[in-house]
Amino acid sequence: MLCILATSLLAFAAHADTALTGASREVRAGDTPQMVLDAFRRGELQSFDPKLLQRVPTRGLGTWVVLQPQPPLVDEERVFTVYPPPLSAVTLFDAQGKTATQSLDDFTPPAHGNGRLAYRIGPEVPASSPILIRFDPSPVRSMPVSFQLQSWHEYLREDARWLVFASACFAVMLAMSLMALCLAMMLRDSTFAWYAGYVLCYALIQGLQTGYLFHPLEATWLAGSAALVSSSAMALSLAFAAMFMARFCELPRFAPLLHTPTLALAVGMPLVVLLRSCQIPVLQQTAQVLVGPLLIIGTLLLLLAAVVAAARGARPAWFFLAGWTPLLALTALSSSQAGGMLADVIWLNDASLAAGAFEAVVLSLGLADRALSMRRDRDIVQELADNDALTNVLNRRAWAESVSRLLGSGTTQPVALLFLDLDHFKLLNDRKGHAAGDRALIAVADALRHELRPHDLLGRYGGEEFVAMLYGVEQAQAMQVATRLCRRVHRMDIPVNDDGLVLSVSIGIAMRVPEDNVESLVERADHAMYRAKLAGRNRARLDEKLETPPRRSWPRAVDIDRSR
């Protein structure tokens, strides 16, 4: 994606067009197009280079601009363009006195340039004829513009390239925003929502400044309000960026002194928007004066906060700086360009659009990294909550919940439950101490874990009691497993006292029946475990309902005769 954007920018910078010379002067009362052209031929207008960005004054009555095509000249259909598209209306005059007026938010012409104002000049107009245009007055400060004269086919190719480039940039920003909104709802983390708001506001700003919202999207509802919407979107984008950065870069932890000013900025910018939108002229003018300085101060504040947070170990701050710094640099260059510098850097406006897409991708990677960290932290917390701190097997709550989910899943596979109790464990604690008892529990839990299958659920039920649920195991297999566990624990030779008594385990076995739940299964296995204790310990016993009753032999015939 970034390679495509860079290639598109180079293509825009290296276009071929007809050479022009230009001159301009302010509109005077009583001016006619012929008077201006005569003054141009007498050299009375101020000359400039049309290829370079020029600030065209729109104060007073406006400004006349005359462009003279230079050889080699070809009589063919051509397109005259003004880039970037200004907010003020621009009128083209032809030799017959006909006019064609266009503006950024004008929807009347049948054919309109994308990302610029475009005027078709038919082949009947001599190639050597000067082009006369007039910039109408506008209350909004004008941005520098450049002028081109291209053949119709060259214009179509460049227009198509720009459409692909701009559409790709906006598609990236919108896709990243939608992804962030989905994550905000799924993870219930407002950080992603603030990011989406910031990127959407920036996309709105670029859509207005480049004219993409007007052509090709035909957003007629924005006609006449582009300046107000653009300034409001700038203020809101900074507010969203402040809220996003405060949470994303963890300012309360890594830059606490800058956290409060950042939040103040996030609250103050929407207030400026409200003042700018109200119907009171004094408040509107005050807000208009405040917007520019607040944007500069706020941008520098966010940059400083990100640098401090990154220096103090905030990993997300590096993502923020990687995405924010190029955009900040381009914004500074654009401001310099508006002041008359960098007049030959025509592609800077499109570079800002590409930088917005780049920033959206970088910050999305940062958010993905944040989401993975949150998931990792959640898994760690879940593991700590579910596992027994001493033996690292499931604790009683987590084990019971896992078994309950399995029993409620409707499975028809056989399920065996083993209830294990260590023999002579109290004596071990009394004689060897609780530290020896803890070591014995850890060793036994580790041995049980290695004897059971990975999907068997092993948990510590309490004290020296363990439980194990065996899935898909018949009664005979369950008895074999329990016997193997008894032998494994006994062979560990964990001494209980100095008389040669070693630790062993007694196990009770219960098989699931359809009406069983966790409590009933545990209760039957627990009773079977007590029967194993009474039978001498270090053995396994089935639930009484599962025990095979002793077979009764039939009396012999001799015995029957004798009884008679």
From TrEMBL:
CDD domains linked to this entry: GGDEF
Segments traversing the membrane: 162-185, 192-215, 221-245, 257-275, 287-310, 317-334, 346-368
Cofactor(s) in the UniProt record: Mg(2+)
Residues covered by the GGDEF domain: 413-545
Keyword Flavoprotein recorded: no
Superkingdom to which the source organism belongs: Bacteria
Alphabetical list of InterPro entries matching this protein: 7TMR_DISM_rcpt_extracell_dom1, Diguanylate_Cyclase, GGDEF_dom, Nucleotide_cyclase, Rev_trsase/Diguanyl_cyclase
Keyword Nuclease: no
Location of the region described as Disordered in the Swiss-Prot/TrEMBL record: 541-564
Protein name: diguanylate cyclase
Higher taxonomy: Bacteria, Pseudomonadati, Pseudomonadota, Gammaproteobacteria, Lysobacterales
